Amino acid sequence: MIPTTQPGKVRAGITALGAYAPNKILSNHDLEKIMETSDEWIVTRTGIKRRHIADDDEFTSHLAIKSVEDLVKRHGRDSLEGVDMVIVATNTPDALFPATAALVQDHFGLKAGAFDLLAACPGWLYALSIAKAYVESGLCQKVLAIGAEALTKIVDWDDRATAVLFGDGAGGAIIEAVPEPYGLKSVVLGADGSGAQHLHRRSVGRCLPNGEPLAEHLYMNGREVFKFAVRVMNTATIEAVEKAGLHSDDISLFVPHQANLRIIEAARQRLELPPERVVVTVDEYGNNSTASIPLALKHALDSGRIADGDQLLLVSFGAGLTWAASVLTWGGAKT
Ligand code: ACO
After folding, report:
1. Helices marked H in 138-198 — which ranges?
2. Which residue among 27, 36, 226 has the greatest number of ligand 1 atoms within 8 angstroms of its CB, and so is best to mutate?
3. b/e for 39-58, b at 16 or more Cβ within 10 A?
4. Does ligand 1 come within 6 angstroms of the Cβ of 290?
5. What is the pLDDT of residues 213-241, one digit of tens each?
6. Strand 11-20 relative to strand 169-178: parallel, antiparallel, unpaired?
7. Whose C-alpha lies nearest to ligand 1, atom 24?
8. What are the residue numbers of the active site?
9. Which pLDDT does position 3 carry in this prediction?
10. Topology, domain 11-178
11. Does 11-178 match 183-329 in CATH topology?
12. Which pTM was predicted?
C-alpha cells in the first residue's frame, strides 16, 4: 500500500480527462447471429447490452490518441503543456515494442518519457499510482496516464463464454500537483499470481501455414474470476476508504471496473451505497479492461454526477490476478 501524503507535501490529482469508444457497435442481437447465445443470457449474467469495437485497421495506439484528442477538446491544448511522462496501460499494445506510449508521445509532439504498463484491467489505476509517485516525488511535473484496449482483436469468437464480455476503448488523464483538499488520497495495489491460470493471453498456434503471425486469444475461467472479483472488490475498497481516513458514507461516487453488473452490485451492497452513487457503463461498453474506469469517469462527468470536492472510490481487478483501488478527491485543476 502506498502511504497517503503528509500535510504540507505535494499531492497529485487528476486535472483533465478524456475518453473514446469506437463508433462500431456490436449488440447482443448481433452476437446471436454469429454464435449460440441470447440477449437474455448475456443481460441476465452480465448486464451487457452492447460493446464498441475497433475497426480492422484501428489499433490500441489509435484509440489512445483519440482519447487524448478528446481530453484536448475538453480542456484545451494547454493541458498537454509540460507533460513529461506518458504511460499507456494496456493488455493489447500495438507491438511488444516499441511502447504504444511512445506512439502517443510522438503524435502529440510531447517532450516526455514514455512506457507501457501491464497489470491487466487495473492497469490504469496502477498507472495513476505511478503518476502519483512521480509527481509527489518531483520526478515529473505532469503525467499523461492512459488506459487503452483493442481487446476484441484477441477475443476467441468460438468461445461464447468470453466473447460476449469484451469491448474496446480508451481513456486518459493528466495527473499533476493539486492544492489541498484535492487529489489521490489513497492507493491500494495487490497481486496473487497463484491465480494466473484463470485469466491469460494464450498463444493458439506457433504460426499459420501461410506464415501469418501467431494467433493469440484471451482465455478465462469465468467462475473462478467471478469469485475472486467479488472478494477483492470488497477488501480493496474497504482498505482504500480506511486508508483515506474516510467511511463508506463519505463516498460520493463509486466507480468500479465495468466487467459484470452482478460483481458491481455485490460490491455496492457490501459498501452499503445507494444505487445512485454507483457508475454503471457496462451495459453500453462491455468490459474494455484498462479503459473502463476512465470511460466511466467521463460518463459521470458528462452527466453532471461529479462535482468539485467529491470523494470518488475507484476499484479494479483482473488477470495476474491483480487488483487496485483508490480514493480521489475530485478537482483542483488551475482555471
Ligand atoms: N450464451 C449462452 N450460454 C452461455 C454463454 C453465452 N454467451 N456462455 C456460457 N453459457 C452457458 C454455459 O455453457 C453453461 O451451460 P451449461 O450449464 O449447460 O454447462 C451456462 O451458460 C452457465 O455457464 P457459467 O460459466 O456457469 O455461467 P456464469 O453464471 O458463471 O456466468 C460469466 C459466466 C458471465 C463469464 C461469469 O462467470 C463472470 O462474469 N465471470 C467474471 C468475468 C469477469 O469479470 N471477467 C473480467 C476479468 S478481468 C478482465 O477484464 C480481463
Report:
1. 160-163
2. 226
3. beebeebbbbbbbbbbeeeb
4. no
5. 667 889 999 999 999 999 999 999 999 99
6. antiparallel
7. 223
8. 121, 257, 287
9. 45
10. Peroxisomal Thiolase; Chain A, domain 1 (3.40.47)
11. yes
12. 0.94
